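quick one, two chains, predict together pls
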Amino acid sequence: MFENFITSLMTVEGFAFYLFSFLTIGLFSVTVMSKNILYSMTSLAAAMVLVSGFFFLLGADFLGVIQIIVYVGAVIALYAFAMMFFDATRDIKEKNTNSFVVFLLGGMSALVLVLMFAAPIHSNDIQALYPMTEGVGNAQDVGMVLFTKYLVPFEVAAVMLLVAMIAGIILAGKKMNHSITENMEIDNDAKDEIMIQKDKE
Amino acid sequence: MIGLSHYLIVSAIIFSIGLIGVLRRRNLLMLFFATEIMLNAVNIAFAAISHYYNDLTGQMFAFFIIAIAASEVAVGLGILIVLYKKHGSLDLDDLASMRG
């Protein structure tokens, strides 16, 4: 087992795999455990980039590029914009109810998942539905399958993204004329003072 | 050599990190981060199976998962902003308004 690990570290693929896996697991743990939202978002962005490394290793070049563009370019940027609404620099105070149970549950589910995935799969009967074409790049291959066999789900996904965009605009755009991070009581006091001044006049 | 089970085990570990995050955190934004982690773990598993069975279906599913994750973030962040305007915090315990 251990010798196998060492020999696989010697190959380029094995070294890259272990590097990416240790880094992603560490960075995702930081994301989950960190008290500061800014730290956890930064480590989430870094881990997303490293996850795309897995996709490049697996020969899914187009998926890796999409991962970088969509996750790091759009999703993390959206989170960064949203965090400007909230108080991001402050540490989160939250009471962690009985974290022993949580770690027990998480560890148990990890164990079950690993056992399920590591179990010998009787996979000789599985046949490729859309096999990869030889001598064609991954992006072209993906395009050929996506725009022939998966055209309807693709269009439905486009409509879903449009609906999500409209929903995001409508939800976030309501009452944008007054700031939400300012303290409401101070706001009310200021309004009262203005009213008093007007009354005096 | 690196086999399919290596990738699946890494994917399972990352998925359970996300699960621990969902169970442990009380801040809604952190719950969203943990959800993203779980979606990414599933994407790794799909890409690995797609590579080792020489089949493109796994990558297709990963694309649609990415699209769903993007729209989930757009709608979810809108809801979070509305919640923050209403309650002034993103803590799940503060938001519990129905007590049985």
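Chain A has two domains: 1-91, 150-201.
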